[in-house]
Design goal:
Blueprint: H1 8-22, H2 31-34, H3 59-75
Length: 93
């Protein structure tokens, strides 16, 4: 029998990371807190709220969306584009 590459501490760290990733929203917010009744805008008794800032433009995201728009146009109306995505990388101008 071969010995596992993962010891108990390593497995515990990976499990902890998975819990954190599952409970972290797209803005870095802790989801159990952000989805609680205390986070609701109408919860005046709460000591916190969430506010948006911006607008900001993520130019990497924009490049991917622009590429998808061009691909949709080139593929035609009936094209099945489920699962299609574009990688984005920083390039020198």
């Amino acid at each position: 029998m071969t010995e596992s590459e993962w010891d108990d501490e390593s497995r515990g760290l990976v499990q902890a990371l998975l819990i954190v990733e599952r409970n972290t929203g797209e803005f870095g917010e802790w989801l159990p807190e952000a989805t609680s009744d205390d986070a609701a805008p109408s919860s005046y008794g709460s000591d916190y709220a969430y506010a948006a800032t911006g607008p900001h433009t993520n130019y990497a995201r924009r490049a991917a969306l622009d590429a998808m728009d061009a691909h949709k146009k080139a593929s035609g109306d009936g094209a099945n584009l489920n699962g299609v995505y574009f990688d984005v990388e920083r390039v020198t101008r």
